[in-house]
User: Fold these one by one.
Assistant:
Number 1:
Amino acid sequence: MKKKLIAIAAIATLAVGTLAGCGSKPTSGGNGGGGGNAGGDTIKVGVDFELTGGVAAFGSSALEGAKLAAKEINDAGGVIGKKIELVIQDNASKPEEASRVAQKLISDKVSAIIGATISTDTLAVVPVAMEKKVPLISSSATNPKVTVDERSGKVNEYVFRACFIDPFQGKVMADFATKDLKAKTAVIYTDNSSDYSKGLQKFFKETFTKNGGKIVGEESYQQKDTDFKAVLTRIKEKNPDVIYVPGYYEEVGKIIKQARELGIKAPFMGGDGWDAPQLVEIAGKDNLNNTFISNHYAPDDSSAEVQTFVSAFKKEYNKVPDAMAVLGYDAVKMLADAVKRANSAEPEKIKDALKATKDFKAATGTITLNENHDPVKSAVVLEYKDGKQVFKAKVNP
C-alpha cells in the first residue's frame, strides 16, 4: 500500500510542479556552485527523505510535516513574493542514495535542501552540500558530526539542523534514569551499524557514570537483525535496573517483544529513533509498558505553538503528528524565515541568514542556532502506556 501511495505522489509531483507539497521533474545541468532559482516566481526546495527502506516511517512523517508547512506558507502569500515548491526525492534509507539524490536536486537548481532524517544518511549529504555551496537543513539528524567536521573540528558552513543533538539527548535520558527511575545499574544495547545509535550510547554512558551509576554490560546488534534472544538472555542474567537501547523502531520493537517474552521486566529506554507508529505494531502495546524515550515534542504539550501545529496537522491528515512530522514542518518554516530575512532565494544569502537564526518560534520551541548551527532547545521525556505516548517531563538545555 505504501509503495502504491508513493507512486501516486510521484505522478502528482510531475503533474503539478508549482503547488506546495509537490515536486518537479529534475532538470539536467549543474548548479555552478549553488546558484539556486532566485529569478523565478517559486523557490525550489529540495527534499531528500527516506520514503522507502528501513526507516521509511521517518521520511514519510517528515514529508507530511514539510508539505503542511509549505502549504501554510503558500496559502499566506508565500515568502518574498514567491511560492515554496518542494522537489521531493526518495533516498531509500541508504546513505549512497541520499548523496546521489542531493546531487540530483542541486542539478535542478534548488535554493536549499531539507533532509535527511537520520544521521547516517545526512552525513552522506554533507560533503555534497559543502562542495556545491547549497544550504542543507536536516530535520532530525542528531549526531554532532552533521554540523561539525570530525577531523578538522570546523563547522560545516552550509549545514544546519532543526533538532537538538545527541549529547543533550543522551544526557536527558541518563539523568532521567538516575534521578527519576533511581537506577543504579544499566545495560546499553547499541545498533553498531548506526552513527546515531553509537553517539547516543557514548553520551548516555558518560552521564550515567558521572551520576554515580554503573554500566554492567554493553551489547551490540546490526540493522536488519531479527533474533536477539541470545544477547537478551545475557542481559537478563545481569539484572540491570534499566536497559538503554538507542536504536530505530524496527529493531527496537523486536528487541522489546523478545525481551518481555524472556521475562525481562526492567524499564527499557531510548531516543527519538523509537518514535514511529510501527513500534507499537512490532513490539505490542503491553510489552511497551514501562519504557521511556527522549523526544523533540509531546503532542499533549499545552504550549500555543504545539497545539496550533497539532490542530493543523490533524485537520490535514486526520491523525496525531509524531516527532518526525513536527521536525519536517519546523525545518521548512525555519528555511522560509531565513529566506524572508535574507530577502533572497540565493543559496549564499540563505546560508548567512540561517546562521543568524535567533528566537525563531517553531512548533518544537524557540530556536536559536549556536555557533555550531545546532538549535538550543528543550527535550521531552515520554512514557509508553498501553501503546500511547504520555508526557512525563520537559527538560531545558
Number 2:
Amino acid sequence: MSDLVHPDRLRKLETLRQEGVDPFPARSIEPSTTNEVRSATTSLEPGTLDTQVSLTVSGRMRSPRSFGKLIFIVVHDRAGKVQIALERGARESWPGTPEKVFQLFERLDDGDQIQATGRPGRTRKGEPTLFVDSLELLAKALAPPPEKWHGLQDTDTRFRRRYVDLWANDGVREVFETRAKIITTIRHLLDSEKYLEVETPMLHPIAGGATARPFTTHHNALDRDLYLRIAPELYLKRLLVGGLERVYEVGRVFRNEGIDTRHNPEFTMIEIYRAHADYRHMMDLVERIFGELQKALVPAGIMKFRDLDVDLRPPYRREKYLDLFQKYVGGDFFDETFCKKKAAELRIPIAGKPPEKLANDLFEECVEGRLEQPTFIIDYPVPICPLAKQKPDDRKVAERFEFFVAGMEFANAFSELNDPIDQAARFEAQVATHDEEAPAAVDVDYVQALEYGMPPAGGLGIGIDRLVMLFTGKNSIREVVLFPLLREENTGAPQSK
C-alpha cells in the first residue's frame, strides 16, 4: 500500500467486510445523471418531494454534512453534481431513509464512490436534492481527497495525479471536454468536405516528415532499429500517390526534445493532405477550421489569451517571411556572416548549426513573439523547407506558411514537393549535414513512391494541444494533456543497483 492510504479508512474497510458488505462490488446499475436529477425537481416547491418518481445517481461522495436527523452529501458524476439527503422520519407519503442506510453511512468517507436511489425534491431553501431510499458503496476510497478549501494545488502533483485533479479542482474536466469538442469540430468539417480519415504507422524505419530528434526503439524479431514517428507526413503523401486524394489523420507524434510550456515529447497533431491543391488552399482551410472553432467556442469572436485580446474571426493577415526577417532581424537571411554576428549579439548558440538553421533561430527569436493577432507567415526560404515546392517566380523561397496567434505557431503547411529527383537531392543534402535533427538516411521508398507520380497537392499540420491551450486560455501544454511527461518522482525509496 502507498503512504497515501489512511489507517482509519483501512479499519472501516475491514469492518465493512466483517459486516458482509463488499467494498468493491463487481456491478452497479446504470444511473441517471446528476443533471437529470436536478431537472426532475424544476416543478417542485421548496420543502417538497415527488414520491411517485424514483431515480438513481452514482458518483463520488463529497462534503458530507450531518445535522442530526438530516445528512447532506454532494455526489459528483460526469455531468456535474447534485445534493442527496439522508433523512430520519416520515415526510408526506414518504417513510424517510431506512436506518440501515445511516448505519452504512457511518462506514463511509469523503471521496468514496456511492450509488443512491431515492425521490427527487427540494429542501426548504429550494436546493434540488435526492432524498435517499437506498444507498450502496461502489468503491471504498482508501486515500483521502485533497483538503476542501485548498484542493490539489501543486502543479507537479496535479499532473501526476490527474485522476484526482479532474474532480478535485474546478474547471479541469471542462478543459478536456473542450479538447474533445475541438477534435470533433475539425473532423466534422473535414468529413463534410469529403476528406478520408486514415491511420498510418507510428513505428518508422526512417525518422522523417519533420526536423526533430526522434525516439529510437528496437524490434527484436526483425533485429532492426525503428523510430517513433515525428510526423505522419510521408505516409500520408504515399496515399496521394495511391489515389486517396483527400486524407487526414489525428494522432500522436513523438519528438525527443525538451519540455517547456509549449512542448511535450509526445503530442497530438492533425495532418491533412489534398490533391490538386496548394498552400493557398491550405490557408483557406485553416481559416475555415478556425472559423468553425471560433463559432463553436468563442461566439463573440474576440477572446483573451496571454493578456491579449485576440480576434479569431477570419480572414487573417498574410506576411512574407523574408520581409519580416529584414524588418525585425535587420539583415539578409542568406547572409551567413551577418547571421552569425547577429546570433552572437543575441547569445544564440552558433556552433555546429547549418547556416539556414541559425538564420531561422534568429527569426524565431526576433519575429515570432511580435505576431500577436492571427497571422500567416508565407514564402519561407527553400533551405528550411525540404518537403515544399519552390515558388515558380522566385526560386529562393518555397510555397510554405506557418500560422501564428499570440506568438505561438499553430499550423504549418506546404505546396508539396512532388518531383522525385528534386526530393532525393534535398534528402541527400539534409543527410549530409549530419545534424541530429535531420534524417540519418534518405527515405528511398518515399522517393520511389514519387516516381510513380504524385499529383500537385497541399499539406497542412495543426497542433491539437496548442489549439486547446488557445481556446481554454491555458499557458502551459501540460494543462491540456491528460498525462504529460514529468521528471521521475522522488519517492525516497532506495535506488536499484
Number 3:
Amino acid sequence: MFQGCNFHCRYCHVPDTLGNCNGCGVCAYHCPAGALKLEAPGTAPQWIEENCTGCGACTNACRKDSSPKIRRMSIKDVLDHVMEHRRYIRGITCSGGECTLYPEFMTELFPLIRRQKLSCLIETNGTLNFDRHRDLMDCCDGVMLDIKAADPERHRELTGRDNAAVFKSAAALARMGKLLEIRTLVTRADYGARETVEKAAEILAPWPGKSDIAYRLIPFRVFGVRREYRGLGTPSRKFMEELRTLALACGFSKVIVS
C-alpha cells in the first residue's frame, strides 16, 4: 500500500493514506501509548511499533490525512518482505493511496517479483496514462480500476477531480488485455450508480474481451470513513441487486456484489 493520493474521495476508507506527513508533531501529542517520538521539528515522528496499540488516535488527530506509521522501503526491502511470505501467497497487489503515483518503483519491482513465479496486480483510480507506461504494463499481470461516477460534475463533487482520464484508462487497459476488474462503490446518496454501470459498458463495448472483465459493485460502509462523510449511507440490498441485473444486461458476465 503506497502513501499519497491525487483524489480526495469523500468515502475513502483509508483516509490516512491520502496525504504525506509534514512533521507537525500533532499526532505524537495525541498518542496515549508513547509509540511516537519527536526527534526534530519538522520531521516525521519515529514510530515505535512495539508500543503501538493501534488505537487510531494519531491518524484521527492528523491534519494532513496522513499517518506517522508509514515505512520508507527500498525495492530490496519490499522484495525481502515478500520473500518472507513466499510460501503463503500467489502474488502481490499494489494499492494505496494511489500506487500509480510511483510507476517507476513498480516497473523496477514487478520483474523481480515475477521471477519468483508470483503475479503482480495494480489497484488504481485510473489517472495514470497507461499508454505512456508500456514498460509497466509489460510486467503487470492485471489492473483493477475504480470507476466512481459517470457524470463529470458528480465525479468532481465526490473526488475533487475530473473523470476523463479514468475513462481513457478503462479503454486503454481493455485494449491491452490488462483490465481484470472494474469497481464502483455505491452510496445511498445519489452519485449516479446506474449511469456509471451503463457508461462502463459503453466504454468497453468495442473490446471482444469485455465479457471476461469482472464488475464489482461495492456497497458503502462507514468503517474507516471520516466522520463528516459517514452520512453518505449504505444502499439497500434491493438496489444493489438492481445494479447487478443492469450490469448483466449491459454485457458483463462476471458481476460481483461484495
